[in-house]
Design brief:
single chain, 308 residues, alpha/beta, Arc Repressor Mutant, subunit A, D-Maltodextrin-Binding Protein, domain 2, 3 domains, five-stranded mixed beta sheet
Length: 308
């Protein structure tokens, strides 16, 4: 073949083979019969094989033309099916979010419906794990990480999320009875729940309290914050956790903050994104939405904050 076969020639051949007529093919493609004849002649010259027998005013496929027509028809059918499928079920974009398990379960998932409502053409996927996502390998569009700063992957930009506040929380049942929690010293009469993934622990909190000594060597330990939160809500003891992760539990009354919402301030979460993709609409829209939601969440907590 001396030059690339054009789609125009393929369309002319497919229509003529299917309709067994150059005239009908021309009518379907809104061209003249001579144009169809010219395109098919050009195709035959390019592939070096006759595709039609010209018999008087009719055309009949050669054996080679018949085999070629079967392949071309199958290809056109696949194109048609793919076009219908993408128009029927696919959204215009897919946003893949990688996030730490506790933030994903406790904070992100309950709010994603609002993002999807604002951006219905974006299909959201969430992957939750403690391992960093491979942004360069397009494993995710963005990665929300927690913990001390590690070596930042090349080609990425790091955006710190707003400061989170860590406070003691427990079931409201622990505020009743003879061992009710009224002061930090009362914690010595209750089980301390340890969240090993949290950047601060009971030793850090006790150091900020005046004349308070706690036995921080005892108590159950969990490697996921959402497990510590659920254990405290179930009455197992008192957890020391981020207010970001317990908004629902505080609103529903499953948890209370016996000493108020003032506590240790920590910059724990970071949003990572590739610099080359940071301005993609789907990423920019999620970034803006994320910070708006975090601000709204913090403002909502402040309005309902109990006095410590």
């Amino acid at each position: 073949m001396q030059q690339r076969i054009t789609l125009k020639s393929i369309q002319a051949f497919e229509a003529a083979a299917r309709l067994s007529s150059f005239a009908l093919a021309a009518e379907e493609l809104f061209v003249t019969p001579s144009a169809i004849s010219h395109q098919i002649k050009l195709l035959e010259e390019q592939i070096g094989v006759p595709l039609f027998h010209r018999v008087h005013r009719s055309v009949v496929l050669t054996d080679a033309g018949q085999r070629y027509a079967q392949e071309i028809s199958a290809a056109f059918l696949r194109i048609s099916q793919a076009t219908k499928a993408v128009g029927r079920s696919e959204k215009s974009d897919i946003l893949t979010i990688h996030c730490t398990p506790s933030l994903a379960a406790q904070w992100l998932m309950p709010r994603l419906a609002r993002f999807s409502s604002a951006h219905p053409d974006i299909d959201v996927r969430v992957n939750a794990s403690t391992e960093p996502a491979d942004l360069m390998g397009l494993q995710a569009d963005l990665d929300i990480r927690y913990g001390r700063t590690r070596v930042q992957p090349p080609g990425t930009m790091s955006i710190p999320l707003p400061t989170e506040t860590i406070v003691p929380m427990c079931s409201p049942d622990l505020l009743k009875g003879s061992h009710a929690i009224r002061s930090p010293q009362d914690l010595n009469q209750h089980t301390l729940i340890h969240s090993e993934s949290c950047l601060v622990g009971w030793r850090d909190w006790a150091a900020q309290q005046r004349r308070v000594r706690l036995d921080v060597t005892r108590g159950p330990r969990f490697d996921r914050s959402f497990m510590s939160v659920n254990a405290a809500a179930d009455g197992l003891g008192v957890c020391l956790e981020s207010l970001i992760l317990v908004e629902r539990e505080l609103q529903t009354g499953r948890l209370v903050a016996p000493f108020g919402y003032e506590g240790l301030a920590v910059n724990g979460y970071t949003l990572l994104v590739l610099k080359s993709r940071a301005e993609l609409p789907k990423i920019r829209w999620f970034n803006d939405w994320l910070f708006d939601e975090l601000k709204w969440s913090n403002d909502s907590l402040l309005k309902t904050a109990p006095r410590g």
